[in-house]
Amino acid sequence: MIYLGSHVGMSGKEMFLGSVKEALSYGANTFMVYTGAPQNSKRKPIEELRINEAKELMKENGIDRFIVHAPYIINLANSVNEATFNIGVETLISELNRTHAMGSEILVLHPGSSVGCEPEVGIAKVIEGLDIALSSTENVNVVLETMAGKGSEVGRTIDELKAIFDGVKDNSRLRICLDTCHLNDAGYDVVNGFDKIIEEIETKIGKNRIACAHINDSMNPLGAHKDRHANIGEGHIGLDALRYVVHHPALDNLPLCLETPYIKDSDNPKDSRAPYKEEILLLK
Questions:
Q1: What phi-psi label fits residue 187: left (phi over 0), alpha (psi between -120 and 50 degrees) or beta?
Q2: The pTM is what?
Q3: How many CB atoms are closer than 10 A to CB 91?
Q4: pLDDT tens-digit profile of 237-270?
Q5: pLDDT tens for residues 90-110?
């Protein structure tokens, strides 16, 4: 079965309940949400998120899985500033507990940036941080996102992700999130070689470790290392290739979520709106 949705917001009085309502308005049967602003670690108490009401609405509408995304400020790969690393570990532990309280087993995490150091140095710090966070929590999987390779990002290749998996003491709760834009920008040929990407993951990590995917077109050509998402069918990957990804058997029954840009509202060109209802229909 195909589970297809998008990023949704969580704010105001309705909080998580509002997230579910937004997903349903797009015709989605899954979704992705942050537990607060992605740029910082300020969070409302779990008791204020209206989780029980959200879960009831999900049950009424047949939504049984969704993704939580960790905030961008977590940088486990930072070997330059120990305070930044420590804050990242603390925030990751908090987000894992919040994800469990909300009812998901998937917390997507950017592995981070080595801040000018060699990738191996950053990877070692990611392993150190994951060892702490995983041993301090339970139930929820840490899902490492494939990265575009801009700057000194780690996780830009399957080999770098494999190094993290191999280094973590207990990697039973480690998983992968495939991002189609990031894969393209990192140099993986999503258009002509998605099967080969899956085969490489199977050989080096195991395709059973794929937990979810972000479905995005890319503004940039193959190998650009820039990470700029485009709307479905309007970038260098294209509708046919993205539809092939969505329907690929390796992603069957996994939550797939759009993170494409908002578009201009035809009724009011000064405003923008979410394109997700139309894009979900395009991809199904």
A1: left
A2: 0.96
A3: 20
A4: 999 999 999 999 999 999 999 999 999 877 777 7
A5: 999 999 999 999 999 999 999
